[in-house]
Every structure is written in structure tokens, then in C-alpha cells.
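Bumping my old thread because nobody answered last time. Still need a sequence for this structure:
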């Protein structure tokens, strides 16, 4: 996974911005999609794009031709791109932000700007409230009402927290650099990032050193550090270029375990742990464990020793949320959480037959390289438009023929021919049942009409779950972190339907989705609903994003026993009903 490069993320963001600005201009879907594909390819690079540029190999990136390579090289060298600045000059900055509101596509954002002078979210809200938006041709009062609701939801979800997928690449680069020097030891991320919360407000990094001042000087030499917030003898606080605060703490080697436990949190976990310790006559702090009566303190160089001193097993960081993990530890009932190595195949991925960037055979070979026993090819159904769009029935049949050739070449892996079929507004599916019956694996997902009422959306989802040909519901709540809220769903009704029909629910590993979220995973685990942890990969590199989904599943107390694609092939094949 390209976790090390901040440059990759920056360039991918630039390309995505160009795609959105081209949409606002009304450029062809082909041009827009070309930039989106290039952004996805850059974001998924296994190497730093600056290294490729230095070697003159930018055009080796899928979707990057000569002209785009020149633009990327210009930005890497100068920090600016003339083409992008020209596009930005055509629209005020706020107009692009309007597209972050569900229901506001590029055409509506452009019309609101050009016909009503709307440049901000406040302006859009006013235009929807005072009737100007409804008065535009082909819009109407209902559209305006739905937009008002969407704006209110968007405002309620605004926060200073960043999606973990935006934070982790930079932090891992920092950790790697710190680990390379002798002055720093035991470098570990703590806080919500270690617990793998889906969004992050700030980052805690813990280390030990005999020379804290030298360690801090080294830290300040790392790329991306913009501002020093505070510096003391044991703590350095900085802001990076994206406004993320990073607190770097140095402690003596013998206190490392206590400090790591304390700053991993969560607050709820630590409060519950302190209350438990007090009942035993012990007092906890970031410095160790002391006897309440004697005041004698124990220091812990390892976190496992800290928990052992409380007669507790080591509790995985993902579970430290104050939701029963201490009681489970005392009862010997902590789950053996899912591990990345438990996953034996990916059951949701795309190829260049639809909107993926790699060929069918290349994706299969990449799955073989990961040691998988099986993989499902699940390109989109016809309703997914664009270039090249979803597969018609005829193209689906031709893909089956191509897949048969790949199967002959690669007997070492079992290849399922599947689809990611769209769930229509009425709950019917984009392929007829007789077509679905021909397939080995069916993922059903919602990709449109996100603003339906809770009753309509729930009925739509439950209908798909009940279809006997559907194996898995893809990204079940439809959220995109920081950009789109989840659908209005009665999740308990969804869980009940999935339990009744034995339909699996997906934990989508794409870092901006992480869908199902952890609390829903735990509910599914409690109800015995099977889950599948998939990547939804659209490129070879995105197969490596599996870790994200696994960590979310762990936060939901999932074990390998409840995960469909942790089964051996023999067990999975017996459960297939196609």
C-alpha cells in the first residue's frame, strides 16, 4: 500500500480537483473520467511519484499520457500548475464546494453560480429557502426542499476531523523516518489512529530517547512540517501542511509501556480501567501503576506488562472504547480478532471491462501474488454509465469467455465470475434474475438516488437482500467520509433481513468508505450475519487497501469465523448457490 508518500496524495487531490472543475465547465464525461482515473492510479502507486518523475517514468502510471505527465512534473517542480490555475480562475472557490452537498452535481452548481450568482454554501441555502432555486427551469420546489435538508445534514457533519485514509500515509512516512535513526527508539503511533478510528482530529506519536532535544530537532526536519505549536522537554506539538496537529512525546525507556497505554486511550477505556484498578487498591497514570495506600509505583517498559499487572490480558487497541472490553478480558472472553492473514480471497473488485484500470488477467495475477485461494471479478452492471461504463448482458457473456481463458492459464486460483449489480429505486436489480443465475457471485449495491426517504431506501435495500441470487450487499450505507452522509436507512430492518436470508454485508476497505462502520459490524456479529471484507479495488495497488477493512472489522469485534472470505475455498464453494 502506498502509505509512505505525501506527494502521491497531493497530486491525486490536484487531479481530482481538475476533474471537478472540468465537470463544472460542462466538459465531456470522457475527459472528466480520464482525470479521475489518473488520480486513482496516482493515489494507489506503490512508489513515490516524485521518484517516477525523476526517472522520467510518469507515463508508466495508468492513464497518464505525455501532456498530463508534463502537468504533473510542473507541479512537482514548482508547486503550481498553470492549467489548474486557469480552471480555478473560471469559478470562485466556493462553487466547487457546493458539489460536496448530496444532490448538487456539477450542472446544478454551475447553474446556481451562473444564473443566481451563488458562490457559497450559505448562498445556496438562501436560494433554496427563498424560492430562487425552485424557480429555475427543470428544478422545482421539491428539489429545493431536498437540497435544504441535504445542506443541513452536511453542516451537521462538518468537523475538524480528517478521514483516516488521508492521515495514515503521512504518519507512516514520519514513523519510517524516525525509525531510521539511532537517537529514537520504540516509535509508535498512539491515540485514535492506533485504535483505527475512522476519522482523526490529531495524532499522538510516542517514542523513547536518551536525547529528547536531538529527537525533536530531527522531527522538525521532516517534510511537511509547517508550524511549531509548542515545544517542551518531553513534548513537541506541530502542525503539518494540511493543518493536522501532531504531538510527539519522548519518555524514558522504562516508562514506555505505561505512556503508550495511557495515550492510546480511549478516554472511556482509561476511565473504566482506572475505576477497575481503584477497586483493587491501585492507581493508574501515564507514569505507571501505584498502590493507593503505599504510593509505591511500578514502571512498565512494555504495554503487555501494564495489563498483566492488572490481571488482564493485553487488550487490542481497536477494542479500547469502553464498550465491555475490560469485562470480556476478565471473563476470558475477548475475541480472537480477524487478522489480515485470515483473508483468503477478495470478493469485490473491478477490471478495465468496466471502470477499473487493470486487465482481468492482471487483477487475477495480483490476487495470486497475495496468496489468495479465490477471487471474484465483479464489474459493474449497465446502469453505471460513463466510459467504458457497466457491462451489458452481451459484454458480460463475452467477459465470461475471457475469464475462461484466464482460468485455464491460472489453475492455482479459483476465479468467480460475478457482478456488482445496481439496486434500482424500487429494489429490483439491474440484471434480470436469469442473468444473475448464470453468475458465481453477485454483489448488489446502491449507486444512485441517495435522497430517498428512509422508508423508501429501506424497502429498496431489503428487497435486494431478499433476492435469492444476491450474495453480498456492497458498501451498505453508501457513505463517503467527509463528503457524503450515509443513506437514510432503518439499519435494524436491514440487519434483520440479512439475518433472515443469510445475505452477507460488506466491510468495504476503500479508505474513504469504510462501510460498514465499526458499530454496525458489531451488530452484525452479534446477530450472526456473515460479513465480507473486500477492497472494491479498481486497480492492482488498491488490492493492498485490505488492511483498512480488516481494522474496521476488528473494531466491530469480528473474528475469522464470521467472515465469508476468511473461509477456505472448500467451505466457500459449498455455500455458493449459483
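Sorry it took so long. Here it is:
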Amino acid at each position: 500500500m502506498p502509505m509512505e508518500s505525501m506527494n502521491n496524495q497531493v497530486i491525486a487531490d490536484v487531479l481530482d480537483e481538475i476533474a471537478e472543475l472540468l465537470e463544472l465547465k460542462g466538459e465531456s464525461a470522457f475527459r472528466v473520467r480520464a482525470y479521475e482515473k489518473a488520480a486513482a492510479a496516482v493515489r494507489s502507486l506503490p512508489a513515490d511519484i516524485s521518484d517516477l518523475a525523476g526517472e522520467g517514468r510518469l507515463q508508466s502510471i495508468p492513464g497518464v499520457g505525455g501532456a498530463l505527465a508534463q502537468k504533473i512534473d510542473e507541479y512537482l517542480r514548482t508547486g503550481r500548475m498553470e492549467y489548474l490555475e486557469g480552471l480555478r480562475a473560471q469559478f470562485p472557490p466556493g462553487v466547487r464546494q457546493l458539489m460536496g452537498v448530496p444532490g448538487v452535481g456539477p450542472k446544478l452548481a454551475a447553474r446556481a453560480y451562473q444564473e443566481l450568482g451563488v458562490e457559497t454554501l450559505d448562498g445556496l441555502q438562501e436560494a433554496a429557502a427563498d424560492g430562487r432555486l425552485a424557480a429555475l427551469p427543470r428544478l422545482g420546489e421539491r428539489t429545493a426542499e431536498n437540497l435544504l435538508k441535504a445542506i443541513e445534514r452536511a453542516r451537521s457533519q462538518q468537523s475538524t476531523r480528517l478521514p483516516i485514509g488521508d492521515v495514515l500515509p503521512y504518519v507512516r512516512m514520519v514513523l519510517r523516518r524516525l525509525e531510521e535513526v539511532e537517537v529514537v527508539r520504540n516509535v509508535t503511533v498512539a491515540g485514535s489512529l492506533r485504535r483505527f478510528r475512522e476519522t482523526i482530529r490529531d495524532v499522538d506519536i510516542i517514542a523513547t530517547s536518551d536525547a529528547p532535544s536531538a529527537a525533536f530537532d530531527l522531527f522538525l526536519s521532516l517534510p511537511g512540517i509547517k508550524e511549531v505549536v509548542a515545544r517542551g522537554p518531553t513534548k513537541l506539538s506541530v502542525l503539518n501542511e494540511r493543518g493536522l496537529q501532531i504531538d510527539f512525546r519522548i519518555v524514558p525507556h522504562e516508562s514506555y509501556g505505561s505512556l503508550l497505554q495511557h495515550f492510546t486511550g480511549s478516554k472511556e477505556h482509561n476511565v473504566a480501567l482506572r475505576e477497575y484498578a481503584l477497586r483493587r487498591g491501585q492507581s493508574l497514570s501515564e507514569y505507571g501503576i501505584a498502590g493507593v495506600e503505599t504510593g509505591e509505583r511500578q514502571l512498565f517498559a512494555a504495554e503487555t506488562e501494564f495489563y498483566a499487572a492488572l490481571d488482564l490480558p493485553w487488550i487490542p487497541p481497536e477494542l479500547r472504547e469502553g464498550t465491555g472490553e475490560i469485562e470480556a478480558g476478565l471473563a476470558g472472553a475477548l475475541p480472537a480478532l480477524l487478522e489480515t492473514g485470515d483473508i483468503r480471497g477478495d470478493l469485490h473488485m473491478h477490471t478495465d471491462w468496466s471502470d477499473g484500470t487493470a486487465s482481468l488477467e492482471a487483477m487475477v495475477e495480483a490476487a495470486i501474488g497475495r496468496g489468495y485461494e479465490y477471487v471474484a471479478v465483479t464489474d459493474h452492471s449497465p446502469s453505471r454509465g460513463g466510459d467504458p461504463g457497466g457491462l451489458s448482458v452481451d459484454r458480460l457473456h463475452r467477459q465470461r469467455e475471457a475469464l475462461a481463458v484466464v482460468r485455464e492459464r491460472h489453475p492455482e486460483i479459483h476465479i468467480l465470475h460475478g457482478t456488482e449489480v445496481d439496486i434500482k429505486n424500487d429494489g429490483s436489480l439491474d440484471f434480470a434474475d436469469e442473468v444473475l443465475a448464470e453468475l458465481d457471485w453477485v454483489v448488489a449495491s446502491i449507486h444512485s438516488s441517495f435522497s430517498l426517504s428512509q422508508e423508501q431506501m429501506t424497502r429498496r435495500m431489503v428487497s435486494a437482500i431478499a433476492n435469492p441470487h444476491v450474495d453480498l450487499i456492497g458498501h451498505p450505507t453508501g457513505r463517503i467520509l467527509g463528503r457524503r452522509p450515509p443513506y437514510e436507512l432503518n439499519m435494524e430492518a436491514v440487519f434483520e433481513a440479512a439475518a433472515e436470508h443469510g445475505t452477507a454485508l460488506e466491510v468495504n476497505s476503500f479508505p474513504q468508505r469504510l462501510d460498514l462502520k465499526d458499530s454496525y459490524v458489531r451488530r452484525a456479529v452479534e446477530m450472526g450475519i456473515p460479513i465480507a471484507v473486500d477492497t472494491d479495488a479498481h486497480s492492482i495497488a488498491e488490492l493492498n487497501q485490505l488492511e483498512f477493512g480488516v481494522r474496521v472489522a476488528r473494531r466491530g469485534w469480528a473474528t475469522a469465523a464470521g467472515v465469508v472470505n476468511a473461509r477456505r475455498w472448500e467451505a466457500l464453494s459449498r455455500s455458493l448457490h449459483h
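The CA atoms of residues 181 and 275 lie 39 Å apart. Let me know if any region looks off to you.
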